[in-house]
Formyltetrahydrofolate deformylase
Amino acid sequence: MNLVLKITCPDQPGVVAELSSRLLELKCNILESSQFFQPSAEAGAAKDEGTFFMRVVISTPEDLNSEKVDESLKAFASQFGANLSCNELGCKVPTILMVSKFDHCLMDILYRVQTDTLPLDIVAVVSNHANSRPDVERLGIPYHLLPVNAGNKREQEEKLEEIIDRTGAGLIVLARYMQILSDEFSSRHFGKIINIHHSFLPAFKGAMPYKRAWERGVKAIGATAHYVTPDLDEGPIIEQHAEKVTHAESATELVRRGRDIEARALSRALRLHAEGRVFIDGNRTVVFEH
């Protein structure tokens, strides 16, 4: 079995050596290792103070699963003050997709999942519109229609929570879901909600970004995949894609091209998250792409 270890801890001597020693005792083989030191941003901090991030892929003996490895490394985590997770490599993440009317990101994700090029298990689709129901149900995926208005947002979020609990979803994807989640919901599921924003954040936040970008005569457009926080469009950024444009392209053409960019950026972010390559560091991320 191949497993992915994610480790975050205060930077200090001996972390890599001790982890390697303990993995050797478990007769595990290290297949891949990525490391990064982030210096502390606090005023007056020494140059060698900061946070250490590490992603390790290991192969294990047949009788050793992720639970046993996690249990065996508890002493290591305690010794170095580390946050440590251990998951099976390639394990598909139970995922809920949320969408409104524009379904280009939704359909792109469904295609990649159906062709085994994106390691997600789509356990449900939730929408405030019925537009995508036929395409989703044709694939045998449950479709939950939860219309939202000013008076029922809390009630619909409670229904969404029930769906999360019932399906065991570990990831929620806002695939152009054009409703704002409550601060409570966003905080409760921090690190498990990924949004695609149709703009190259932090510019042009909010509504109609391509129109406003066109009005400003931009020479590049883009899309940003980020984790959702109570601060609208301010969450840690996972992935950004951009393309050059010219004065000759209309606002409508920017929208068309933008949708392609959004789908690519979101699918890339989902893969990075599912493969355990993203570490949240305050309002930033550390992403081990390879």
Remarks:
- The longest strand covers residues 29-39.
- The chain has nine helices and 13 strands.
- The chain has a mean pLDDT of 93.
